[in-house]
Automatic annotation (TrEMBL):
Residues 72-251 form the IclR-ED domain. PROSITE patterns: HTH_ICLR (PS51077), ICLR_ED (PS51078). The keyword Transcription regulation applies. It holds the Pfam family IclR_C. The lineage of its organism: Bacteria, Bacillati, Actinomycetota, Actinomycetes, Pseudonocardiales. The keyword Transcription applies. InterPro entries: GAF-like_dom_sf, HTH_MetabolicPath_Reg, Tscrpt_reg_IclR_C, Tscrpt_reg_IclR_N, WH-like_DNA-bd_sf, WH_DNA-bd_sf. SMART domains: HTH_ICLR (SM00346). This is IclR family transcriptional regulator. Keywords: DNA-binding, Transcription, Transcription regulation.
Length: 262
């Protein structure tokens, strides 16, 4: 047995991870009791694990006694390839897009059935949005998500439909057949759009980002106010930016290969 957990089959590692995953965007600061409840472990176990994680730097305690994610965990997270190589290659193009469009600019990758936002840039003139760097949104209702889903294996699309296509607004696509036709259109025209499908008043447009082999590894998108969004103009700005990112990724691979052969 793994110890005095409500689920005696869970390992110490699994319980420690459950403590960390108790935190999310809506629960960034938690009391010890809240951590125990959300991790589904006894309070005494939570106290021991939280103390160990705090000593290591994965958690830290703020002035009112609540716990937050620690700096050391953030530092380790920055070592993930998606945050380093991809983000570094994309950032100059995202900054240029943000300056020229004055809208929100996103870079996202697929993780399971979600679009994970690697980076988000915005301006004071940009329309308010719910996405955030490091956050997740469903793929079927967002521009970047549709790009990622359109280029995902058929099994992923099937799983997404089986999991349920949540209706976020009256314009969200929730019928599997209609979504399939939409994804086919994304592949044929080379971009995706989602007009008020995630948030009323917002229109997102996105294009695929490929690596040197031609594999779609991310999606680059812009979110603008639906009233003034010019999809054609946004696509014309996004496509060369995505190609620039592809070229920088390819250049990086060549540098790495050259280093290996020295």
């Amino acid at each position: 047995m793994a110890g005095n957990s409500r689920d005696p089959g869970r390992s110490v590692t699994a319980r420690a991870l459950s403590v960390l995953t108790a935190f999310d965007a809506e629960h960034a600061r938690l009391t010890l009791t809240a951590i125990a409840q959300r991790a589904d472990i006894p309070l005494a176990t939570a106290h021991r694990l939280v103390r160990e994680l705090e000593l290591w730097g994965a958690l830290q305690r703020d002035s009112d006694g609540r716990y937050v994610i620690g700096l050391r965990l953030w530092e380790i997270g920055l070592l993930a390839p998606v945050n380093g190589r991809l983000r570094e290659a994309a950032l100059p193009y995202m900054q240029e897009l943000c300056e020229t469009t004055h809208d929100n600019v996103h870079l996202a990758v697929r993780d399971g059935l979600d679009a994970v936002y690697v980076e988000k840039l915005t301006t004071p003139r940009a329309v308010p949005i719910i996405s955030r760097t490091g956050g997740r949104l469903p793929m079927h209702a967002t521009g970047v998500g549709k790009v990622l889903l359109a280029h995902a294996p058929a099994t992923v699309v099937h799983s997404c439909c089986e999991h349920g296509l949540t209706r976020h607004t009256a314009y969200t696509i929730t019928e599997p057949g209609r979504l399939g036709r939409e994804l086919q259109g994304v592949r044929s025209r080379g971009y995706a759009s989602a007009n008020e499908e995630m948030t009323l008043g917002n229109c997102s447009v996105a294009v695929p980002v490929q690596d040197a082999s031609g594999t779609v590894v991310a999606a680059l998108g812009v979110v603008a106010h639906s009233v003034r969004a010019d999809v054609t103009r946004l696509v014309r700005s996004l496509l060369p930016a995505a190609d620039g990112i592809r070229q920088r990724l390819a250049d990086g691979e060549r540098v790495n290969l050259d280093a290996l052969h020295r």
